[in-house]
Amino acid sequence: MTAEALADIQETLKRSRDTLGCALKSLKHNHSARAGDLTILRKTASGAIRSDIATPAQERGMIVGMSLLPGHRRRIREGARRHDRIFDRHSIYIRDFDVDYAARTEGAFDFLLIELPLETRLRLRPTNAASDPLLGRMAEGLLGWLADPDRFDPMAAEELGARLSLHLAAAHAMVRRPRPRTRLSPAQVRRAKEMMMSVEFGHLHLDEVARALDMSRNSFFRAFRETAGTSPYQWLLAERLEQGRLLLRLTDLPLVDIALSCGFADQSHFTRMFKRAQGISPGRWRKSA
To answer: Which tens digit of pLDDT belongs to each residue from 238-264?
Structure first.
């Protein structure tokens, strides 16, 4: 076999697998989205399948895997170590990408995966046998977003990343240090709220507000929540919805104009958020107001 033919075969094999070494044709769900610094993925395969996964050692950070189904089995090789594992629901594994990883899988699986970048300051304890029900509930709440991340606001996605990072730090960090309760000053709260309300919805990122207060994204998220009793995105969404209710009650503007003036991406986004908060659509609420 010539070198060119071998290179073509290797390229074909490469295109047939995802970045974690899973065969693409075996995946029912193959979702991916960004949440702040984190990459969130969902990998699902149905039926009594058998497949091989291989991820060569690389400089890539860490990954957390969360099983959403029980009964999946893997025969795993990490570097020179070999072991078998049967996953329960909400079983997790945490591993570095800096060692060769290979696994032979048996049975249907549904995994939510959280990839931490190489440059992150958060270092997690690698583990092959652990369970995290709280992370499991958080993971299951992400599935709708993962299926269609463009329907959601960038700030909401960043908050998801911040929540996940804080949980991973609290539950699985290599070194746990007592963390003082941090609150924002009245001036900082005022500045943060002014920034969030002064731009069109979806154009502002937590990083921008955090930098204005000389804080990291996660520190700002934690401090705002501690001070205001709600997260930055939830506070902003409540303010936008209150503006929407005022315009619905006091004007006869079309719903699309109200949605855009309140900072929502479009009428559908406004309607979805309004109905989630009020239990009825904006049009029905306006008639009853």
So the answer is: 999 999 998 998 898 999 999 988 888
Pure H helices in the chain:
3-15, 133-141, 143-147, 154-172, 186-198, 206-212, 217-228, 232-250, 255-261, 267-278, 282-288
87, 69, 107, 66: CA torsion to nearest 10: -50
Residue 13 has φ and ψ, to the nearest 5°, of -65, -40
Residue 232 identity: P
Residue type, 278: Q
Instruction: Tell me how far apart the alpha carbons of residues 127 and 62 are, in angstroms, rounded to a whole number.
Output: 12
User: Do 232 and 155 meet the contact criterion of CB atoms below 8 Å apart?
Assistant: yes
Per-residue confidence (pLDDT) for residue 183, from 0 to 100:
86
Distance from C-alpha of 166 to C-alpha of 161, rounded to nearest angstrom = 9
Interatomic CA distance for residues 198 and 192, integer angstroms:
10
d(CA 71, CA 21): 21
Crossing angle between the packed helical segments 267-278 and 232-250, to the nearest 10 degrees = 100
* Measured distance CA(286)–CA(270) in Å, rounded: 14
